[in-house]
Amino acid sequence: MIFNPSLKVLSVLFHTCLLFLRAQARRSAEFVTYGSVLKLMNPEFEVRLHSHDIKYGTGSGQQSVTATKLQEDVNSHWAITPAMAQYRSRGDAVKCGDIIRLLHLETKMNLHSHLFPSPLSGNQEVSAYGKNGEGDSGDHWEVYCDTGDWLRRDTIKLRHVDTNKFLGVSSKVYNRPITGQYEVAGFDSGVKKSMISWKAMEGVFVHPNEEFKAQFNTYSHPVHTEL
């Protein structure tokens, strides 16, 4: 058998390329990306951001936003979309400082805030607003993080752009018809940090590595953690 050294070189190059692609796939799985659907957990009370087709009885009368201890509730799914008049490709990494919207998957309304008092603590009301994902500038939230890109392991803050309040959870708990769910509200930056902190938990995270998805179908699937 005649040994062809060029075949060995090609083999080394192929394996090097494969290792690079695997590393890129692992790295991309670390990002929170546009188009991803996720649950957000507040570490102070270990509750997940939640909404449902129940209106506030005070304030704006819009769809209420709460936080729940239940991990499995389908009403805690939120999709990450760009700010109005901004374009981001599905799978682009969300960067620290980006202005995003959070679309409630079940009701197609955006996470929203405005100058109404919240019903239990008197902080700023947070609601779900809009129709089929279209609302107004009250749906805009700035991502506060320190790593350049929002990584899934990060604890972040979300600042409401219009009012400069931070999305958080109070210690107040609702009675019927949403017994046991915590009040979500907008807070000043000076409150206890963990009250206005959030962490990406269960979800479907879309990879940003679109260029080599077409060539290597092995890496074409989004990362799925248990919803």
Give your account of this protein's structure:
- Keywords: Repeat, Signal.
- This is MIR domain-containing protein.
- Residues 29-83, 91-146 form the MIR domain.
- It holds the Pfam family MIR.
- The protein is mainly beta and 227 residues long.
- The model is unreliable at 15-28 and 211-227 (pLDDT under 50).
- Helices cover 11% and strands 36% of the residues.
- Strands 1, 2, 3, 4, 5, 6, 7, 8, 9, 10, 11, 12 and 13 form a 13-stranded antiparallel sheet that branches.
How would you summarize the topology of this molecule?
Elements: H1 5-28, E1 37-42, E2 47-55, E3 63-68, E4 78-82, E5 99-104, E6 109-117, E7 124-129, E8 141-144, E9 155-160, E10 166-173, E11 182-187, E12 198-205, E13 223-224
Antiparallel strand pairs: 1-2, 1-4, 1-12, 2-3, 3-7, 3-11, 4-5, 5-6, 5-8, 6-7, 7-11, 8-9, 9-12, 10-11, 12-13
Compose a concise summary of this entry.
This protein has 227 residues and is mainly beta. It has one helix and 13 strands; from the N terminus they run αβββββββββββββ. The longest helix is centred in the N-terminal third of the chain and has 24 residues.
Estimate the mean pLDDT confidence: 86
Distance between the termini: 55 Å
The structure class reads mainly beta
Taken from the alpha-carbon principal axes, the silhouette is globular
Our Rg estimate from Cα atoms comes to 21 Å
Elements, N to C (H/E): HEEEEEEEEEEEEE
Kindly estimate the percentage of residues that lie in beta strands according to DSSP.
35-45%
**pLDDT < 50 stretches:** 15-28, 211-227
Number of helices: 1
Helix proportion range: 10-25%
Total count of strands: 13
For the largest beta-sheet, the strand count, sense and barrel status come to: 13 strands, antiparallel
Protein name: MIR domain-containing protein
Signal peptide: 1-25
Keywords: Repeat, Signal
Pfam family, one: MIR
